[in-house]
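Example record

One chain of 170 residues, shown exactly as stored in the release files.
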Amino acid sequence: MVLSATYTWLYLKGVVPGCFIPAFIGSSIYVALCWKKKIYAESFLYLFYVGMAVVGYFSLMPEVMAASWTISTHLLVISAGAAATVISGFLLRRHSDAATPYLDSFTTIFSLIATWMMVAFIHENWLYWIVIDTLAIFLYAKRRMWITVLLFVLYLLMAIDGYFEALSLF
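Predicted structure tokens for this chain:
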């Protein structure tokens, strides 16, 4: 939990590439933890984060420009994410013993999208994280992963801070 929260806090503070070291370690731990708790899509999400930590550490650009998407781009991305969520949820429900297949799929699919938005420095990524983190709190509470619930409460607070901090860039 501490490693994952440290990554987000360091990212918010612009400590790069150093923020990707705790991201790598913390995400690796969560791959195994989520698999054990039968939150399979989240397990694959954390595996994606492990890879993104490696990519982020080695491929940072010297100057970062914050960008914004149009409403039509957001609607397209949200529609595609919703469709992928339904498909993934259906597959998990039908072919696994996933505890909450649709919620697990939603948080996973949209976390992939929001992570990509972070890497691309799209400032609305924080709005996506606010929704994702709120639902993740429920997901982990349902599985009685109380320390992880606290982590996602912290993530939610940092996402809110990140959104308002990102607004000051414009």
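Notes: The mean pLDDT is 88.
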